[in-house]
């Protein structure tokens, strides 16, 4: 009877524990990340009675967590990618609204400008038509100022998001490491797994995956090590926590935040290693849409400014003066790295559009740089012959076709006494027409000048050579977006008139000194209007331009649209993947109330039956006592 009583008592304890575990499951049915628990009930060790082994009832050996590591890993990965594309889409739609709108887009303003050129060509003596040209140019300037401001605000928004997301990542890493320590302590002396702590850790890991892609590695002591998504950099390893740091790049004036880690005592940029989560989405958006859009827009704007200006130089205004800058031409400086040790700060490294260049007799000075005999030429100098004007215009148009939507890094080499030019994004050297890396030497043979992808790189004002390895960056096409402005101040300055007499190129006919055509001539403004349909951008290997100015903007807008559509497709796909994996996780580890209700009923009945065993044991004992008393 004593054994019967012990069996009954153990059984009630067993099923009471089972009811408690089931109740805990029911209570956490709405708890995010909770994994269903299960009481593992086993038989107690039997006793050898001589006539056989007599069972001793049951007991709870452990409380197990219903969990599949591979499902949780899939869930974190799917959640990370879903979060990435969700953030990418939100940001990219902002840019799409700014640069790709058909109603208020840049193409509309440019079309209005060309329409005003055509209208003035039809009425070259009309002051109203001249004022309309100036008005449309100013409208475009105002529109670009607003667009530049909005895109600049977007850059600041991205910087702020990188900082905030980095802070959230560090908070989650700190939480995970703290739980790691608690788990390791619980298991260190052969203890049972702390199920609820493990759930809290998985929840923190999932939240970490919301911000960046990660790889996890389970250790024998119960800890989880965490690395960046490509496995390259440890965030938590051997109980050592390495946080992320959002900071300005070495090019401080660039005002660009990147993500860094301290690895081996060195500050290492790790932005390119983060591909998932919201932070990965922000970084991808900036690198592959925002920067690209601004550079492509800058190429089209530089093409508009350069082609309009150089065509404008061909003509004469209402007062017979040679055409000057219609728009303010490109002129920007480099930004130095904070790591530089040499004396140059970048202000003497200038990039402009100055296509009339002979390496054997370099031309310097203001636009238009016509007179190659004067070094530098006099301001507003005109070429001695009309044919020279046409030659220089052809050179300008050819140079415009070489524009590439990229940023440049200049690295000084003491050995070559010059600057190596690289793509700032990829680090690859920029190649010249012969396929050789571009080098601008301070002395011979370049004498501080070099034409690179249609742009004039000028380092002649660098008085003292930088230190070996000093680097500088320059963003000429983004600079045009920021600095775009109209140079002419009145309609009278518009060079509508052409050249008279015009050199026909007939053999034996002398080239003439440039003189203005008569009042009412519209040759030059008609040529300016025709720029709308002329292919001037993105030359192929044969030197033939493939895009018009409007086509350049259309290409940029198309790329924005493709990025947005591609992101939408990826987001829809990843949402489906996440939903499927989450459903699998809930099916395997989640709490099913119907199942738990059935368990409660089953364990309740078992508990009642166990209590009946105790009652029966007591009844038998009382019967025995009664028999003894007789």
Automatic annotation (TrEMBL):
Q: Name one Pfam family in it.
A: Flg_bbr_C
Taking every annotated instance into account, which residue ranges of this chain make up the domain Flagellar hook-associated protein FlgK helical? 93-327
GO molecular function annotations of the record: structural molecule activity
Record's keyword terms, sorted: Bacterial flagellum, Cell projection, Cilium, Flagellum, Secreted
Q: What GO biological process terms are annotated to this protein in UniProt? A: bacterial-type flagellum assembly
Domain Flagellar basal-body/hook protein C-terminal intervals: 588-625
Q: What is its main location?
A: other
Subcellular location(s): the record lists: Bacterial flagellum; Secreted
Record's PANTHER family? FLAGELLAR HOOK-ASSOCIATED PROTEIN 1
| Protein name (Swiss-Prot/TrEMBL) | Flagellar hook-associated protein 1
Species name for this entry?
A: Hydrogenovibrio crunogenus
């Amino acid at each position: 009877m004593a054994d019967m009583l012990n069996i009954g008592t153990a059984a009630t304890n067993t099923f009471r524990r089972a009811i408690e575990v089931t109740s805990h499951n029911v209570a956490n049915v709405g708890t995010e990340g909770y994994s269903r628990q299960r009481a593992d009930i086993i038989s107690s060790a039997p006793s050898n009675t001589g006539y056989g082994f007599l069972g001793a009832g049951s007991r709870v050996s452990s409380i197990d967590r219903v969990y599949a590591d591979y499902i949780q890993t899939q869930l974190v990965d799917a959640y990370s990618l879903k979060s990435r594309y969700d953030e990418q889409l939100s940001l990219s739609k902002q840019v799409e609204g700014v640069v790709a709108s058909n109603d208020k887009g840049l193409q509309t303003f440019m079309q209005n400008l060309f329409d005003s050129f055509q209208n003035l060509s039809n009425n070259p003596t009309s002051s109203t038509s001249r004022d309309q040209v100036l008005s449309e140019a100013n409208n475009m300037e105002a529109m670009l100022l607003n667009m530049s401001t909005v895109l600049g605000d977007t850059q600041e928004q991205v910087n702020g998001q990188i900082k905030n997301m980095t802070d959230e990542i560090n908070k989650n890493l700190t939480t995970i490491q703290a739980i790691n320590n608690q788990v390791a302590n619980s298991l260190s002396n052969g203890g049972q797994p702390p199920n609820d702590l493990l759930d809290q850790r998985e929840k923190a890991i999932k939240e970490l995956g919301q911000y960046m892609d990660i790889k996890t590695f389970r250790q024998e002591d119960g800890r989880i090590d965490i690395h960046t998504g490509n496995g390259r950099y440890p965030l938590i390893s051997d109980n050592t926590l390495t946080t992320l740091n959002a900071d300005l790049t070495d090019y401080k004036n660039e005002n660009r935040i990147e993500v860094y880690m301290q690895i081996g005592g060195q500050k290492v940029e790790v932005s390119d290693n983060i591909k998932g989560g919201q932070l990965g989405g922000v970084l991808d958006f900036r690198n592959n849409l925002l920067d690209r859009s601004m550079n492509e827009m800058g190429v089209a704007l530089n093409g508009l400014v350069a082609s309009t200006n150089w065509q404008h130089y061909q003509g004469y205004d209402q007062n017979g003066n040679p055409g000057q800058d219609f728009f303010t031409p490109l002129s920007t400086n480099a930004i130095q790295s904070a790591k530089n040790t040499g004396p140059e700060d970048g202000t003497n490294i200038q990039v402009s559009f100055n296509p009339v260049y002979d390496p054997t007799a370099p031309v310097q000075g203001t636009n238009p740089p016509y007179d190659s005999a004067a070094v530098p030429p006099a301001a507003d100098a005109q070429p001695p012959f009309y044919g020279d004007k046409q030659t220089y215009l052809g050179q300008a148009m050819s140079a415009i076709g070489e524009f590439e939507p990229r940023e440049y890094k200049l690295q000084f080499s003491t050995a070559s006494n010059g600057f190596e030019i690289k793509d700032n994004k990829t680090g690859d050297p920029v190649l010249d027409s012969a396929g050789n890396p571009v080098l601008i030497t301070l002395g011979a043979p370049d004498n501080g000048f070099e034409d690179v992808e249609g742009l004039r790189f000028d380092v002649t004002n660098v008085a003292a050579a930088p230190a070996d390895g000093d680097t500088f960056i320059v963003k000429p096409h983004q600079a045009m977006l920021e600095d775009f402005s109209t140079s002419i101040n009145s309609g009278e300055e518009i060079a509508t008139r052409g050249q008279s007499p015009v050199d026909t190129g007939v053999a034996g006919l002398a080239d003439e000194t440039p003189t203005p055509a008569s009042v009412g001539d519209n040759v030059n403004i008609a040529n300016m209007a025709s720029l709308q349909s002329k292919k001037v951008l993105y030359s192929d290997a044969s030197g033939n331009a493939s895009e018009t100015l409007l086509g350049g903007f259309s290409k940029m807008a198309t790329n924005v649209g493709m990025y947005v559509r591609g992101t939408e497709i990826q987001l829809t796909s990843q949402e489906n993947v996440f939903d499927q994996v989450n459903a699998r996780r809930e099916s395997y580890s989640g709490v099913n109330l119907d199942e738990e209700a059935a368990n409660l009923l089953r364990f309740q009945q078992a508990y009642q039956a166990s209590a009946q065993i105790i009652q029966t044991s007591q009844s038998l004992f009382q019967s025995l006592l009664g028999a003894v008393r007789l």
